Predict the 3D structure of the following.
Amino acid sequence: MIVGSHCIVADPRSLGMSKDTDQASIQFVATRLRTIRTHHNLTQEELAGLVGCSEKFIQQIEAARKKQIWLSTVGLLAASVGLRVDEFLAPELPVKRKLPRKVASSRVHRKS
């Protein structure tokens, strides 16, 4: 995981690192977020509501299309699902987590 100046960067040359190393860090965050979201049976829309961001932003992170992800953003993502940043970035995901607040149903989970 490459973290420099409170930012996970997609151009690590500024930190003297290779682009491949940093892309792996961005991909790790993307995969971890998707894993957590699906574990809690959340849609991207529902997760965005918990985080306080747009669904498009969640889509961009999960698709690893962001060039950099600020550590404060990782903190918001982690807190929205009841994790600390170190737990979110740890090699093994903690098992014992419940969402810290009730999720408003998205159009996908609403009953007709």
Q: What stands out?
A: The chain has five helices and two strands. The first strand starts at residue 7 and ends at 9. Residues 82 and 98 are 7 Å apart (CA to CA).
